[in-house]
Design a protein that fits this description.
By secondary structure, the protein is an alpha/beta fold. 34% of the residues lie in helices and 15% in strands.
Length: 369
Protein backbone atom coordinates (compact mmCIF):
# COMPACT_ATOMS: atom_id res chain seq x y z
CA UNK A 1 0.00 0.00 0.00
CA UNK A 2 1.29 3.46 -0.93
CA UNK A 3 -0.21 6.69 0.33
CA UNK A 4 -0.51 9.41 -2.32
CA UNK A 5 1.17 12.73 -1.54
CA UNK A 6 -1.13 15.74 -1.70
CA UNK A 7 -0.27 18.37 -4.38
CA UNK A 8 -0.58 22.10 -3.64
CA UNK A 9 -0.21 25.30 -5.65
CA UNK A 10 0.24 28.02 -2.98
CA UNK A 11 3.35 27.34 -0.90
CA UNK A 12 3.01 30.48 1.24
CA UNK A 13 -0.56 29.58 2.20
CA UNK A 14 0.54 26.01 2.94
CA UNK A 15 3.47 27.04 5.12
CA UNK A 16 1.19 29.45 6.99
CA UNK A 17 -1.43 26.74 7.53
CA UNK A 18 -2.78 27.13 11.06
CA UNK A 19 -0.90 30.40 11.67
CA UNK A 20 -2.75 33.47 12.89
CA UNK A 21 -1.23 36.91 13.37
CA UNK A 22 -1.91 36.60 17.09
CA UNK A 23 0.17 33.41 17.36
CA UNK A 24 3.72 33.70 18.67
CA UNK A 25 6.02 32.11 16.14
CA UNK A 26 9.64 31.56 15.19
CA UNK A 27 10.87 31.71 11.60
CA UNK A 28 14.33 30.23 11.05
CA UNK A 29 16.35 31.48 8.09
CA UNK A 30 13.84 33.82 6.40
CA UNK A 31 16.54 35.71 4.42
CA UNK A 32 14.86 37.56 1.52
CA UNK A 33 11.72 35.41 1.35
CA UNK A 34 10.10 35.47 4.81
CA UNK A 35 6.99 33.33 5.19
CA UNK A 36 5.56 35.36 8.09
CA UNK A 37 6.97 38.89 7.67
CA UNK A 38 6.45 41.44 10.42
CA UNK A 39 5.41 44.08 7.88
CA UNK A 40 2.32 41.95 7.20
CA UNK A 41 1.48 41.86 10.88
CA UNK A 42 2.83 38.43 11.87
CA UNK A 43 4.09 38.04 15.44
CA UNK A 44 7.19 36.05 14.51
CA UNK A 45 10.69 36.12 16.00
CA UNK A 46 13.32 35.69 13.28
CA UNK A 47 16.55 33.71 13.62
CA UNK A 48 19.36 33.76 11.05
CA UNK A 49 23.14 33.63 10.78
CA UNK A 50 23.52 37.24 9.58
CA UNK A 51 21.91 40.57 10.38
CA UNK A 52 19.97 42.45 7.72
CA UNK A 53 22.92 44.77 7.03
CA UNK A 54 25.29 41.82 6.71
CA UNK A 55 22.97 40.09 4.24
CA UNK A 56 22.79 43.22 2.10
CA UNK A 57 26.57 43.62 2.17
CA UNK A 58 27.28 39.95 1.45
CA UNK A 59 24.79 39.75 -1.44
CA UNK A 60 25.31 43.21 -2.93
CA UNK A 61 26.45 41.73 -6.24
CA UNK A 62 24.05 38.79 -6.36
CA UNK A 63 21.51 39.41 -9.14
CA UNK A 64 19.06 36.91 -7.66
CA UNK A 65 18.96 38.53 -4.21
CA UNK A 66 19.59 42.24 -4.88
CA UNK A 67 16.09 42.96 -6.28
CA UNK A 68 14.59 41.61 -3.03
CA UNK A 69 16.58 43.65 -0.51
CA UNK A 70 13.36 45.36 0.64
CA UNK A 71 12.02 41.95 1.72
CA UNK A 72 14.93 41.34 4.09
CA UNK A 73 13.66 42.27 7.54
CA UNK A 74 15.64 43.04 10.68
CA UNK A 75 16.79 39.77 12.24
CA UNK A 76 15.80 39.41 15.90
CA UNK A 77 18.33 36.71 16.81
CA UNK A 78 21.62 36.54 14.90
CA UNK A 79 23.31 33.26 15.73
CA UNK A 80 24.93 30.19 14.20
CA UNK A 81 24.47 28.16 17.40
CA UNK A 82 22.13 25.14 17.50
CA UNK A 83 18.48 26.17 17.78
CA UNK A 84 17.95 25.73 21.53
CA UNK A 85 21.20 27.48 22.47
CA UNK A 86 20.50 30.31 20.01
CA UNK A 87 17.13 30.98 21.65
CA UNK A 88 18.31 30.64 25.25
CA UNK A 89 21.42 32.81 24.72
CA UNK A 90 19.59 35.56 22.82
CA UNK A 91 18.90 39.01 24.27
CA UNK A 92 15.17 38.24 24.02
CA UNK A 93 15.16 35.10 26.18
CA UNK A 94 18.47 34.99 28.08
CA UNK A 95 16.84 36.35 31.27
CA UNK A 96 14.28 33.53 31.29
CA UNK A 97 15.47 30.35 33.03
CA UNK A 98 15.44 27.55 30.43
CA UNK A 99 12.65 28.95 28.24
CA UNK A 100 10.42 26.28 26.76
CA UNK A 101 6.95 25.98 25.26
CA UNK A 102 7.12 29.59 24.03
CA UNK A 103 6.13 29.27 20.35
CA UNK A 104 2.85 28.33 18.70
CA UNK A 105 4.71 27.51 15.49
CA UNK A 106 8.18 27.23 13.98
CA UNK A 107 8.63 27.68 10.24
CA UNK A 108 11.64 27.03 8.02
CA UNK A 109 12.11 26.87 4.27
CA UNK A 110 15.09 25.12 2.68
CA UNK A 111 16.91 25.06 6.00
CA UNK A 112 16.51 21.52 7.33
CA UNK A 113 18.65 19.91 4.60
CA UNK A 114 21.57 22.14 5.63
CA UNK A 115 21.61 20.85 9.22
CA UNK A 116 24.51 18.62 10.15
CA UNK A 117 22.61 17.46 13.27
CA UNK A 118 18.89 17.30 12.44
CA UNK A 119 17.91 15.35 15.60
CA UNK A 120 19.26 18.18 17.74
CA UNK A 121 17.06 20.63 15.84
CA UNK A 122 13.94 18.44 16.08
CA UNK A 123 14.42 17.90 19.81
CA UNK A 124 14.83 21.66 20.31
CA UNK A 125 11.58 22.23 18.41
CA UNK A 126 9.83 19.78 20.75
CA UNK A 127 11.03 21.80 23.74
CA UNK A 128 10.26 25.23 22.31
CA UNK A 129 6.80 24.48 20.92
CA UNK A 130 3.67 24.81 23.01
CA UNK A 131 1.35 21.78 23.25
CA UNK A 132 -0.34 21.35 19.86
CA UNK A 133 2.26 23.68 18.35
CA UNK A 134 3.66 22.74 14.97
CA UNK A 135 6.88 22.76 12.97
CA UNK A 136 6.31 23.45 9.26
CA UNK A 137 9.19 22.97 6.84
CA UNK A 138 9.73 23.27 3.09
CA UNK A 139 12.42 20.78 2.05
CA UNK A 140 13.78 20.16 -1.46
CA UNK A 141 13.01 16.79 -3.06
CA UNK A 142 16.47 15.50 -3.85
CA UNK A 143 15.52 14.22 -7.32
CA UNK A 144 14.18 17.64 -8.35
CA UNK A 145 17.21 19.80 -7.53
CA UNK A 146 21.00 19.68 -7.85
CA UNK A 147 21.08 16.82 -5.28
CA UNK A 148 19.71 14.46 -7.95
CA UNK A 149 22.69 12.08 -7.94
CA UNK A 150 23.25 12.03 -4.19
CA UNK A 151 21.93 9.07 -2.16
CA UNK A 152 18.96 9.51 0.13
CA UNK A 153 19.74 10.00 3.81
CA UNK A 154 18.64 7.18 6.10
CA UNK A 155 18.21 7.19 9.86
CA UNK A 156 21.69 5.99 10.77
CA UNK A 157 23.29 9.17 9.46
CA UNK A 158 21.03 11.23 11.74
CA UNK A 159 21.96 9.03 14.70
CA UNK A 160 25.72 9.22 14.05
CA UNK A 161 25.62 13.03 13.86
CA UNK A 162 23.59 13.17 17.08
CA UNK A 163 25.69 10.83 19.25
CA UNK A 164 28.93 12.43 18.00
CA UNK A 165 27.55 15.95 18.54
CA UNK A 166 28.31 17.05 14.97
CA UNK A 167 27.28 20.66 14.39
CA UNK A 168 28.88 21.51 11.05
CA UNK A 169 29.26 19.85 7.64
CA UNK A 170 32.26 17.55 7.41
CA UNK A 171 34.96 17.85 4.76
CA UNK A 172 33.43 14.93 2.86
CA UNK A 173 29.97 16.48 2.97
CA UNK A 174 31.27 19.80 1.65
CA UNK A 175 33.27 18.02 -1.06
CA UNK A 176 30.19 16.09 -2.22
CA UNK A 177 28.08 19.26 -2.13
CA UNK A 178 30.53 21.08 -4.40
CA UNK A 179 31.39 18.28 -6.81
CA UNK A 180 28.23 16.14 -7.15
CA UNK A 181 25.71 18.87 -7.87
CA UNK A 182 23.71 18.36 -11.08
CA UNK A 183 22.18 20.78 -13.59
CA UNK A 184 20.56 20.61 -17.00
CA UNK A 185 23.03 20.79 -19.85
CA UNK A 186 21.76 24.23 -20.83
CA UNK A 187 22.93 25.47 -17.42
CA UNK A 188 19.48 25.87 -15.86
CA UNK A 189 18.38 24.20 -12.60
CA UNK A 190 16.68 20.79 -12.71
CA UNK A 191 13.50 21.99 -10.99
CA UNK A 192 11.29 18.93 -11.52
CA UNK A 193 11.07 15.16 -11.96
CA UNK A 194 11.35 12.94 -15.04
CA UNK A 195 14.49 14.47 -16.54
CA UNK A 196 16.23 12.42 -19.19
CA UNK A 197 19.82 11.55 -18.31
CA UNK A 198 20.72 12.86 -21.78
CA UNK A 199 19.78 16.34 -20.57
CA UNK A 200 21.56 16.28 -17.16
CA UNK A 201 25.18 16.69 -16.20
CA UNK A 202 27.25 17.32 -13.10
CA UNK A 203 28.19 20.95 -12.52
CA UNK A 204 31.77 19.72 -12.10
CA UNK A 205 31.95 17.46 -15.15
CA UNK A 206 35.62 16.58 -15.36
CA UNK A 207 37.67 13.44 -14.99
CA UNK A 208 41.33 14.23 -14.36
CA UNK A 209 42.66 11.54 -16.68
CA UNK A 210 40.63 12.72 -19.65
CA UNK A 211 40.14 16.46 -19.32
CA UNK A 212 42.64 18.68 -17.57
CA UNK A 213 42.10 22.38 -17.09
CA UNK A 214 45.61 23.90 -16.92
CA UNK A 215 44.27 26.97 -15.11
CA UNK A 216 42.75 25.02 -12.22
CA UNK A 217 44.92 22.95 -9.89
CA UNK A 218 42.52 20.54 -8.17
CA UNK A 219 45.05 19.36 -5.58
CA UNK A 220 45.65 22.95 -4.48
CA UNK A 221 41.86 23.52 -4.48
CA UNK A 222 41.29 20.56 -2.16
CA UNK A 223 44.02 21.69 0.24
CA UNK A 224 42.48 25.17 0.30
CA UNK A 225 39.08 23.63 0.98
CA UNK A 226 40.50 21.78 3.98
CA UNK A 227 42.09 24.98 5.29
CA UNK A 228 38.93 27.03 4.83
CA UNK A 229 36.80 24.42 6.59
CA UNK A 230 39.20 24.23 9.55
CA UNK A 231 38.99 28.02 9.87
CA UNK A 232 35.21 28.28 9.78
CA UNK A 233 31.84 26.99 8.65
CA UNK A 234 31.15 26.12 4.99
CA UNK A 235 27.50 25.75 4.05
CA UNK A 236 26.34 22.57 2.33
CA UNK A 237 23.38 20.28 1.88
CA UNK A 238 24.04 17.60 4.49
CA UNK A 239 20.96 15.43 3.99
CA UNK A 240 18.71 14.40 1.11
CA UNK A 241 15.04 13.43 1.20
CA UNK A 242 11.85 12.62 -0.58
CA UNK A 243 8.49 12.73 1.25
CA UNK A 244 8.45 9.02 2.12
CA UNK A 245 12.07 8.89 3.27
CA UNK A 246 11.40 11.80 5.62
CA UNK A 247 8.36 10.03 7.11
CA UNK A 248 10.43 6.88 7.60
CA UNK A 249 13.17 8.76 9.48
CA UNK A 250 10.67 10.46 11.80
CA UNK A 251 9.05 7.07 12.46
CA UNK A 252 12.43 5.55 13.32
CA UNK A 253 13.36 8.39 15.67
CA UNK A 254 10.07 8.01 17.53
CA UNK A 255 10.50 4.23 17.69
CA UNK A 256 13.86 4.51 19.48
CA UNK A 257 12.87 7.42 21.71
CA UNK A 258 14.92 10.20 20.14
CA UNK A 259 11.66 12.04 19.41
CA UNK A 260 8.68 11.96 21.73
CA UNK A 261 5.78 14.19 20.73
CA UNK A 262 6.56 15.58 17.28
CA UNK A 263 4.82 13.57 14.57
CA UNK A 264 4.02 13.94 10.90
CA UNK A 265 0.62 15.63 10.79
CA UNK A 266 0.47 16.36 7.05
CA UNK A 267 2.76 16.35 4.02
CA UNK A 268 2.38 17.67 0.48
CA UNK A 269 4.34 18.54 -2.65
CA UNK A 270 4.91 21.87 -4.34
CA UNK A 271 7.11 21.87 -7.43
CA UNK A 272 10.64 20.86 -6.46
CA UNK A 273 9.94 20.69 -2.72
CA UNK A 274 7.75 18.97 -0.19
CA UNK A 275 6.15 20.71 2.76
CA UNK A 276 5.75 18.81 5.99
CA UNK A 277 3.82 19.79 9.11
CA UNK A 278 4.94 18.11 12.32
CA UNK A 279 2.66 18.65 15.29
CA UNK A 280 3.52 18.38 18.98
CA UNK A 281 0.50 16.46 20.12
CA UNK A 282 -0.50 13.63 22.37
CA UNK A 283 -2.53 11.48 21.84
CA UNK A 284 -1.46 10.67 18.33
CA UNK A 285 -3.24 12.09 15.29
CA UNK A 286 -2.62 9.53 12.58
CA UNK A 287 -1.33 10.63 9.18
CA UNK A 288 -2.17 8.29 6.27
CA UNK A 289 1.46 7.14 6.20
CA UNK A 290 0.78 5.62 9.62
CA UNK A 291 -1.14 2.87 7.85
CA UNK A 292 2.02 1.81 6.04
CA UNK A 293 4.34 -0.82 7.46
CA UNK A 294 8.01 -0.01 7.72
CA UNK A 295 8.69 -2.26 4.72
CA UNK A 296 6.06 -0.38 2.72
CA UNK A 297 7.66 2.94 3.65
CA UNK A 298 11.09 1.74 2.53
CA UNK A 299 9.65 0.42 -0.72
CA UNK A 300 7.69 3.65 -1.31
CA UNK A 301 10.86 5.65 -0.69
CA UNK A 302 12.82 3.64 -3.25
CA UNK A 303 9.98 3.57 -5.80
CA UNK A 304 9.50 7.33 -5.53
CA UNK A 305 13.15 8.09 -6.36
CA UNK A 306 13.28 5.42 -9.08
CA UNK A 307 10.17 6.79 -10.79
CA UNK A 308 11.49 10.36 -10.52
CA UNK A 309 14.86 9.60 -12.06
CA UNK A 310 13.88 7.12 -14.78
CA UNK A 311 14.52 8.36 -18.29
CA UNK A 312 11.81 10.74 -19.43
CA UNK A 313 11.73 9.17 -22.89
CA UNK A 314 10.97 5.67 -21.55
CA UNK A 315 7.47 4.35 -22.13
CA UNK A 316 5.43 2.84 -19.29
CA UNK A 317 5.94 -0.58 -20.93
CA UNK A 318 9.71 -0.08 -20.93
CA UNK A 319 9.63 0.96 -17.28
CA UNK A 320 7.55 -2.10 -16.37
CA UNK A 321 9.86 -4.42 -18.32
CA UNK A 322 12.94 -2.91 -16.66
CA UNK A 323 11.34 -3.26 -13.22
CA UNK A 324 10.52 -6.93 -13.87
CA UNK A 325 14.06 -7.50 -15.13
CA UNK A 326 15.56 -5.99 -11.96
CA UNK A 327 13.19 -7.97 -9.72
CA UNK A 328 14.07 -11.24 -11.49
CA UNK A 329 17.77 -10.43 -11.07
CA UNK A 330 17.24 -10.08 -7.31
CA UNK A 331 15.22 -13.31 -7.08
CA UNK A 332 17.86 -15.22 -9.04
CA UNK A 333 20.80 -13.76 -7.12
CA UNK A 334 23.07 -15.91 -4.96
CA UNK A 335 22.35 -13.83 -1.82
CA UNK A 336 18.59 -14.27 -2.23
CA UNK A 337 18.97 -18.06 -2.58
CA UNK A 338 21.35 -18.28 0.41
CA UNK A 339 19.00 -16.35 2.70
CA UNK A 340 15.88 -18.36 1.71
CA UNK A 341 16.12 -20.68 4.80
CA UNK A 342 16.33 -17.68 7.14
CA UNK A 343 13.28 -16.04 5.56
CA UNK A 344 11.34 -19.31 5.80
CA UNK A 345 12.35 -19.76 9.45
CA UNK A 346 11.27 -16.23 10.26
CA UNK A 347 7.88 -16.74 8.63
CA UNK A 348 7.40 -20.06 10.49
CA UNK A 349 8.33 -18.49 13.84
CA UNK A 350 5.89 -15.64 13.25
CA UNK A 351 3.07 -18.12 12.46
CA UNK A 352 3.87 -20.17 15.58
CA UNK A 353 3.79 -17.10 17.81
CA UNK A 354 0.43 -16.10 16.37
CA UNK A 355 -0.89 -19.63 16.92
CA UNK A 356 0.36 -19.62 20.52
CA UNK A 357 -1.30 -16.27 21.16
CA UNK A 358 2.00 -14.56 21.92
CA UNK A 359 1.80 -12.33 18.87
CA UNK A 360 -1.19 -10.63 17.32
CA UNK A 361 -1.70 -10.78 13.59
CA UNK A 362 -1.44 -7.18 12.36
CA UNK A 363 -3.19 -6.09 9.23
CA UNK A 364 -2.53 -2.37 9.67
CA UNK A 365 0.58 -0.86 11.17
CA UNK A 366 0.57 2.37 13.13
CA UNK A 367 4.33 2.62 12.84
CA UNK A 368 4.42 6.40 12.44
CA UNK A 369 3.12 7.62 15.79
Amino acid sequence: MTTAIRQITDRFAELRLGVTKENKGLEVGPFFRPICPKKEGFNAVTLDVFSRNEFIKNYANNPNVRPHFDCIEEVDIVSSEPLLEAIRNSDIYKHEPNPEMIFDYIITAHHFEHLANPIQFLQAAEILLKPDGFLSMAIPIHTRCFDLYKPLTITGKFIDAYVNNINAPSLGTVYDHLTFGAIKKDGTPIGGPHKSNDNIKLIWDELENFQINPHFNKIAWFKELQTNLSNGYIDAHCNFFNPYSFCLIIADLKMIGLLNQLQVHDICEHGMEFIVHLRKSDPVELHPCSRMTRTELVQATSAYSAYETYRADSSSEEIENETIKQLNAILESRSWRLTRPYRAAGELLSKLLVAMGRKKKQLISNFIT
